[in-house]
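Lecture notes, continued. The same structure-token format from the folding unit now serves as the input rather than the output. Read the line below as a description of shape only.
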């Protein structure tokens, strides 16, 4: 059975499978350095036209890794244990939908539960038992939540301290947009636990048990809020009496957006979302020295080699992983941060069209990167209507990890003009062939082949690079002249 899929306006739910290390600055059409593509699921798979936040969960019983992606109308869950062949497990619809305010859903994970918030009025904090993902036998499915916390209605984001079992809604419609404390130690029975409003609106936050060099505060629960024009440091150990420790601003701020501590808690890296737009500088990360929490100071500023806007940043080991909208994911080496030396050691541009800076909210490209899987899998979510969910990895991981896919199939001639032949090099039978463009759009499909070779007519395709998937296993790059 043959399908030629070139018409416009037809929805296909296709996963592009392509474990391809970065080579000569390219990974299947995406500019890159040292990081390559493992797979890419387009937004059409999720029935969505935009995505935003992303996070991850590792099943403690099975070791399986799952990516979570925020969508306009809810959140989607993808098994990436085999990063070359991800499985779209299902979708959780928002408890409240709003065409105008439902642009994003932000999510964090605690104790095998996902906690999802949105700026939709009346949304609250949706709670979802992630162990349900284990039992899906016919994906994708429509999930139902396991409760909604209604102590706040809307929230821009949620931070969770997994060491204490407290969630912190930020940018909520309570406490002047500051921190809204929720005890989630019993995840399906959340309990309001107060809040903090003294420093105004918090756009994003990180909350940790402080283990840095400042002996005055070791062991406290430290809330670090990115509060539009400054970073605030608050002792929230006593939920009934949170105490501001200090705050710190920096030169030429436009919008203090989000930040993350180094693992030794000596430095806090913060992004300013709008300084590239209004100050005209290249991508900038402000590094704060917080070795003395009573006297934090700006340690240095890092400037990238792109004008794109920085968004979210996370630290794992001695690397920082940055989502930078039109410039995609950028990876920074922090090993010499003490000497004010930060260098870019890799990137993967999920928006290859350009690296433009836009003053409009909703720049296309990478909204978020989740770097905390032990496997080294990296999840990047694109905000735009192109791209969707990317699963990436450092080149050495891709090259050192044996593919679970069959490698006995080949395509010739390659490059080709009008026709290609897909061949089996052993006794394997070809049952299904799919051909994708570099964005993951399915262009041609043949099934029920049951042969050891098959000729495909590609004469109607434009010149460029394509991916041929055989039996949903092997992925072969093909160049069309």
């Amino acid at each position: 059975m043959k399908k030629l899929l070139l018409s416009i306006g037809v929805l296909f739910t296709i996963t592009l499978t392509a474990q391809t290390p970065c080579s000569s600055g390219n990974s299947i059409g995406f500019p890159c350095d040292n990081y390559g593509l493992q797979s890419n699921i387009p937004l059409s798979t999720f029935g969505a036209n935009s995505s935003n936040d992303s996070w991850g969960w590792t099943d403690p019983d099975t070791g399986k890794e799952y990516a979570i992606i925020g969508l306009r109308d809810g959140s989607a869950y993808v098994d990436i244990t085999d990063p070359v062949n991800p499985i779209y497990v299902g979708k959780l619809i928002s408890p409240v939908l709003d065409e105008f305010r439902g642009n994003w859903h932000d999510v964090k994970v605690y104790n095998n539960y996902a906690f999802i918030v949105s700026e939709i009025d009346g949304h609250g904090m949706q709670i979802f038992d992630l162990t349900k993902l284990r039992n899906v036998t016919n994906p994708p499915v429509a999930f139902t939540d396991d409760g909604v916390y209604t102590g706040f209605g809307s929230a821009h984001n949620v931070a969770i301290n997994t060491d204490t079992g407290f969630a912190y809604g930020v940018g909520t419609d309570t406490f002047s947009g500051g921190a809204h404390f929720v005890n989630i130690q019993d995840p399906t029975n959340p309990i309001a636990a107060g809040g903090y409003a003294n420093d105004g609106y918090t756009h994003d936050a990180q909350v940790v048990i402080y283990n840095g060099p400042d002996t005055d505060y070791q062991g406290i629960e430290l809330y670090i809020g990115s509060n539009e024009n400054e970073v605030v440091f608050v002792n929230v150990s006593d939920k009934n009496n949170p105490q501001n420790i200090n705050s710190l601003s920096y030169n030429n701020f436009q919008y203090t957006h989000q930040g993350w501590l180094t693992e030794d808690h000596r430095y806090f890296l913060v992004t300013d979302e709008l300084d590239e737009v209004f100050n005209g500088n290249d991508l900038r990360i402000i590094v704060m020295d917080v070795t003395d929490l009573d006297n934090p100071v700006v340690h240095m500023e890092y400037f990238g080699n792109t004008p794109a806007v920085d968004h979210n940043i996370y630290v794992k080991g001695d690397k920082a992983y940055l989502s930078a909208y039109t410039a995609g994911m950028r990876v920074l080496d922090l090993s010499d941060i003490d000497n004010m030396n930060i260098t870019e050691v890799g990137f993967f541009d999920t928006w290859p069209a350009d690296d433009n800076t836009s003053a409009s909210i909703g720049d296309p490209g990478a909204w978020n990167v989740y770097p905390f899987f032990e496997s080294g899998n990296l999840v990047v979510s694109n905000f735009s209507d192109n791209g969707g969910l990317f699963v990436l990895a450092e080149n050495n991981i891709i090259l050192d990890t044996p593919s679970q896919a069959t490698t006995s199939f080949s395509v010739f001639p390659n490059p080709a003009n009008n026709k290609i032949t897909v061949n089996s090099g052993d006794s394997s039978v070809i049952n299904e062939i799919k051909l994708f463009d570099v964005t993951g759009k399915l262009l041609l499909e043949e099934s029920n082949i049951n042969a050891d070779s098959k000729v495909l007519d590609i004469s109607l395709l434009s010149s460029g690079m394509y991916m041929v998937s055989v039996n949903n296993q092997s992925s072969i790059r093909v160049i069309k002249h």
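Point for the exam: The longest helix spans residues 395-400.
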